[in-house]
Design a protein that fits this description.
It contains 9 helices and 7 strands. With about 250 residues, the protein is of the alpha/beta class. It has one domain: Rossmann fold. The protein has a 7-stranded parallel sheet with strand order 3-2-1-4-5-6-7, with helices on both faces. Helix 1 packs parallel to helix 2, helix 1 packs across helix 9 and helix 4 runs parallel beside helix 6. It is globular and about 45 Å long. Bound molecules: NADP nicotinamide-adenine-dinucleotide phosphate (NAP). NADP nicotinamide-adenine-dinucleotide phosphate binds next to helix 1, strand 2, helix 4 and helix 7.
């Protein structure tokens, strides 16, 4: 049974990915920080349908937590074959000239440094350089990396730009070591991230500007995420995949 760790797997895109991963035969580790009930619900649904899942608490922006997350997965499921670097945050809509340093620090710490730390601990297990048998890393970027999200969250967009660069650079670094690294760039997807950032109707508000005239669902993003670690994508690395309704 292949093993997948999904950071922020308790809600939204991560939860949809966890459910689909279990259907595709993965044992799934569902990471979360605060909302244990949401993680337990995803895990119970998977185990209730005959799959194998565990929940693992830990903040991806704290390296001790990341080390503990990976050790728990090693012990309870085994060495991972795939990491989905999905945990991420948005913040209130605001201009750059209003953004406090504390907001910027938190945004970059979770979205960028968190993804780097998880990639680091994954590569140490997957790379043939460390005696591993290979694997795949899927990073959650965003269409915002292209648009820049002016007037809304340029800081968030910049963290996703960093994820695109990391996907390219890390992908090349470990390409000859059996590890493939790719990123998925969703557009406006209907999850709680928008409510938590103070704009609960963002999906409806932005729909007219999307060529397909609607936002997407987490279940429409998960299949692209799941394709990337699969054998069908065996020659795909350092690549970015938009799931954004044409935006
Ligand atoms: P979401 O519904 O808000 O879910 C976020 C998940 O991340 C939750 O499981 C949350 O767990 C977890 N999380 C947050 N901070 C964490 C931390 N420091 N350490 C570990 N886990 C943490 O978000 P989403 O919309 O599904 O977004 C998932 C990813 O897709 C993010 O990287 C986001 O930037 C990206 N994305 C989303 C959209 C969109 O429109 N929704 C578009 C483009 C890209 P707790 O509940 O326990 O905090």
């Amino acid at each position: 049974m292949k093993i997948m760790l999904i950071t922020g797997g308790s809600r939204g895109i991560g939860a949809a990915t966890a459910r689909l991963a279990a259907k595709r035969g993965y044992a799934v580790a569902v990471n979360y920080t605060k909302n244990r009930a949401a993680a337990d619900e995803v895990v119970a649904a998977i185990n209730g349908e005959g799959g194998r899942a565990i929940s693992v608490q830990g903040d991806v922006s704290i390296e001790d937590d990341v080390a503990a997350i990976f050790e728990t997965v090693d012990e309870k499921l085994g060495t991972i074959d795939a990491l989905v670097n999905n945990a991420g945050i948005l913040d209130q809509a605001m201009r750059v000239d209003e953004m406090p340093a504390s907001r910027l620090e938190k945004m970059f710490l979770i979205n960028v440094i968190g993804s780097f730390l998880c990639a680091k601990h994954a590569v140490r297990r997957m790379s043939t350089r460390y005696g591993g048998k290979g694997g795949a890393i899927v990073n959650l970027s965003s269409a915002a990396a292209r648009t820049g999200s002016p007037g809304d969250y340029v800081d968030y967009a910049a963290t996703k730009g960093a994820i695109d660069s990391m996907t390219n650079g890390l992908g090349k670094e470990v390409a000859a070591e059996g590890v493939r690294v790719n990123a998925v760039r969703p557009g406006f997807i209907d999850t709680e991230i928008h409510t938590l950032s103070g704009v609960p109707d963002r999906i409806a508000r932005t729909a007219p500007g999307v060529p397909m005239l609607r936002g997407g669902t987490a279940d429409e993003v998960a299949p692209m995420i799941l394709w990337l670690p699969s054998d069908e994508a065996s020659y795909v690395t350092c690549s970015l995949f938009d799931v954004a309704g044409g935006r």
